[in-house]
Design goal:
8 helices; 3 domains; Jelly Rolls; seven-stranded antiparallel beta sheet; mainly beta; Hemocyanin, Chain: A, domain 2; single chain; disordered N terminus; 50% strand; 10% helix
Length: 520
């Protein structure tokens, strides 16, 4: 059984009716709790603070208190993240493809995917292979160079010496063992990678009869890439934030004054990213769907990103949908049970190719969504209903010493500086959940809301007395009950029109005694 703030408050009252907690020892104590009768039996006196009540929430939410003690409920969605590997493979166009060299200097075409314009990439891993055929009858020295690859100021080059042709098979070189390219910077000029080779015979100079010259790059990965990195999509997983605050609600209205739905974004990609909100809905306890309306849903939220001097830096963006920029408060009046959201990130949304962005192999974009409900608002006839299973009620009172009892009357006395009116009804039911009796004849006020100022802060403590008369026959029935049906109704002052604040140090004192009437 999950509990929310309102149900917890009523449950404490209901359970204390039969717990004998902190029993009073004499009539003086009882009188201090508002009991004054000829035969008065003390039952209990207790006190609790709202901070204690609010701490018992389910694992997906947390309770915080600001510097003024204001209670704030926070519900978090799952953390979701996308890395550079999830975005695109910029170098896939040249990976594991054999490319022929048409001349001693060749410009190998490089077409980056999806409109990406690559300036350069620092290679993390990868290999280079080349092969050719030679029918020269003397040694040939072949040098392959790639001016587009530079490391420590030197371009990549490799030299291979062939053996003379023996009328059997032409010589093939450097095909099976890839040459390591890690740490090289690949410069891409005019969408091309330049490769050149030269071949010299030992005695007769330049060899112009090499044939079938091909090259291949394999398993290329980059640790850093810079350029215009196109219009791509970060796809985050769709998620739902469960809100158990209203789980036992049956009817009534409420209004939150300062609710928020917060986006927490972390970004280490060095280019613009803008939100694309596909879904941002509030789902009511009646399973109705209410889309959030805001200019920022249509226009998107721009996420902060590091510039070229901040490589490796994580930029954070915290954005709030609130009453000023959305219809959030109106949606929450529908009594929500969940927030459903589906958000993507669009890279370079304005298509500005002048922005030369970057990404590293560890770049990431993460998103977490939070629903914040400060306990500041108004409630009108807010009803909750739940069932409590019990083994047996034991009043721990020996009535025989008082003679023949005609009736017993519970008297509940409360002092509260919590700004909530609380009405209560307890239905007693048998093991088959059939109602056999009730505590009151109708739902009855048991706690009066403390008075508040214009800002909803408590001013004065309020007191309240409530009575419930039970005959001897009803006692016998109640003692056989195995289930409690608990109905509780809440409202803020002025018939639910006044917004109030609930804080950690607000407390309720409750005392209960029993007055018995006997036959003379």
């Amino acid at each position: 059984m999950k509990l929310n703030i309102f149900f917890l408050l009523s449950l404490i009252i209901g359970v204390f009716l039969f717990s004998g907690c902190q029993k009073l020892e004499n009539l003086d104590d009882l009188e201090a709790s508002g009991i004054d009768a000829e035969y008065a039996i003390p039952l209990f006196s207790t006190e609790f603070e709202m901070g204690e009540v609010l701490e018992n929430f389910d694992e997906n939410s947390s309770v915080f208190f600001d510097e003024n003690g204001q209670a704030i409920l926070r519900y978090f969605g799952d953390f979701t993240s996308s890395g550079s590997a999830d975005l695109f493979e910029v170098l896939s166009d040249i990976d594991n493809v054999f490319l022929p060299l048409e001349d001693t200097i060749s410009a190998l075409p490089f077409v980056a995917p999806d409109g990406i314009t690559l300036d350069f990439a620092i290679l993390k891993s990868g290999g280079f292979r080349y092969a050719f055929a030679s029918e020269h009858e003397e040694d040939v020295t072949v040098t392959v160079a790639i001016p587009s690859l530079i490391r420590d100021g030197e371009i990549f080059s490799h030299t291979l010496n062939t053996v003379p042709y023996n009328d059997e098979l032409p010589v093939t070189g450097a095909l099976l063992t890839p040459l390591d390219l890690s740490g090289y910077t690949l410069n891409v000029e005019e969408d091309s990678i330049f490769v050149e080779f030269s071949a010299f015979r030992e005695t007769s100079g330049f060899a112009d009869t090499l044939s079938g010259f091909v090259v291949a790059f394999n398993d290329i990965t980059a640790s850093f890439i810079q350029g215009f990195l196109g219009n791509q999509v970060f796809e985050f997983e769709r998620d739902t934030i469960e809100i158990d605050f209203f789980e036992n609600w049956t009817e009534g209205t409420l209004r939150f004054e300062e609710p928020e739905i917060n986006f927490f974004v972390k970004n280490s990609f060095g280019f613009p990213v803008r939100s694309s909100i596909n879904v941002l809905d509030v789902i009511s306890v009646n399973d109705e769907i209410f889309p959030l309306s805001s200019p920022f849903i249509e226009a998107g939220i721009d996420f902060a990103y590091p510039d070229s001097s901040e490589i490796g830096t994580v930029k954070e963006t915290n954005f709030s949908f609130n009453n000023e920029n959305s219809n959030l408060s109106d949606l929450l009046e529908a009594v929500p049970k969940a927030v459903d959201y589906d958000v993507d990130g669009l890279t370079n949304p304005d298509g500005n190719t002048a922005i030369r962005g970057f990404m590293t192999d560890s770049s990431f974009l993460s998103l977490q969504v939070e629903a914040v409900l400060p306990v500041f608002g108004a409630v009108s006839n807010f009803n909750v209903f739940d069932t409590i299973r019990v083994e047996r009620f034991d009043f721990d009172v020996d009535f025989e010493e008082y003679g023949d009892i005609d009736y017993a009357e519970f008297k509940l006395f409360s002092e509260s500086n919590v700004p909530l009116n609380i009405d209560l009804q307890l239905f007693f039911a048998d093991e088959n959940e059939q109602i056999i009796d009730s505590l009151f004849t109708e739902i009855t006020p048991v706690v009066t809301a403390a008075t508040v100022d214009g800002d909803g802060n408590t001013l004065e403590v309020a007191t309240k007395e409530a009575f419930a008369r039970v005959t001897e026959g009803r006692f016998d029935r109640i003692r056989e009950a195995r289930n409690l049906f608990l109905q509780t109704r809440f409202s803020t002052p002025e018939s639910g029109m006044r917004s109030v604040r609930v804080t950690a140090d607000q407390n309720v004192k409750i005392g209960m005694g029993l007055k018995v009437g006997v036959s003379r």
